[in-house]
Amino acid sequence: MTDKLIKIAYLYEDLMNTYGDSGDVKILRFLLKRQGYDTQVDNISLGDEFNAFDYDFVFFGGGQDFEQTVVAKDIPRHKDTLEKYINAGHPMLCICGGYQFMGDYYKTNSGVTIKGLGIFPLHTVFKSDKRMIGDTKYMTEWGEVVAFENHSGQTYFDNTDKLHPLGRMIEGYGNNPQDKAEGLRYRNFIGSYSHGPLLKNVNVANAIVEMILTWHQKRLANQENVTE
Ligand code: GLN
């Protein structure tokens, strides 16, 4: 592994990429380049082998309900590696449908229940009262964020002691119409309903770059220890 190459896993890039979510990866590549790092982005799609610990960053974008049913059949193979990677505090960003997959399930408007990985105690349900669409604004630990949301799933935390939102809503819905909370922040994991893409908010993008570079150094050191 070269010390100036950042490896990014893009989960189901060909199926999960709504409203320009791939822009998040492009922005990270741009910011990393400015710091002298090259990037390699691997699309991990249906049937592909995947070990999250081979990567410096994992990205999972949003998707339509249909694509989510396709991904749901393949993704359970990766639960173990993703759960370990997330719990070890390594950086991952999940947007909208990708974020929903990290919870227990997503019950869609057609009554289908799409099983999630169950990494976090949260669930997502369609309720006929609202499709959450429009501009959003919320406050995070890195300052204000502006974005766009479009989802019919409403996400609820089932263990509010363990789970903390990414932000507090100023405008728009975020996780659901009641909680005034947007997304999930756990160690270096970020789940969010924000498209636009989210990382046009350079405050969040810079925070993620820092997480990536910290983990990259550790990964490099581990690799050296293994090969010695
Ligand atoms: N299909 C999901 C929903 O409508 C996710 C949408 C998205 O990823 N933009 O809730």
List the helices and strands and how they pair.
Layout: E1 5-11, H1 22-34, E2 38-44, E3 57-60, H2 65-74, H3 79-87, E4 92-95, H4 97-101, E5 105-107, E6 113-115, E7 122-126, E8 132-140, E9 143-151, E10 153-157, E11 167-171, E12 181-182, E13 184-186, E14 189-192, H5 202-227
Parallel strand pairs: 1-2, 1-3, 3-4, 4-14, 5-7
Antiparallel strand pairs: 5-6, 7-10, 8-9, 8-11, 11-12, 13-14
Helix pairs in contact: 1-5
The structure holds glutamine.
Residues 18, 62-65, 68, 96-97, 150-153 line the site of glutamine.
Describe the structure.
- The protein is of the alpha/beta class and 228 residues long.
- The protein has a single domain (2-227), classed as Class I glutamine amidotransferase (GATase) domain (Rossmann fold).
- The chain contains 5 helices and 14 strands.
- Helix 1 (22-34) crosses helix 5.
- The radius of gyration is 17 Å and the shape is globular.
- 43% of the residues are buried.
- Glutamine is lined by residues 18, 62-65, 68, 96-97, 150-153.
- The site of glutamine (GLN) has 12 residues, from helix 2 and strand 9.
- The active site is at 96 (nucleophile), 195.
- This is Lipid II isoglutaminyl synthase (glutamine-hydrolyzing) subunit GatD.
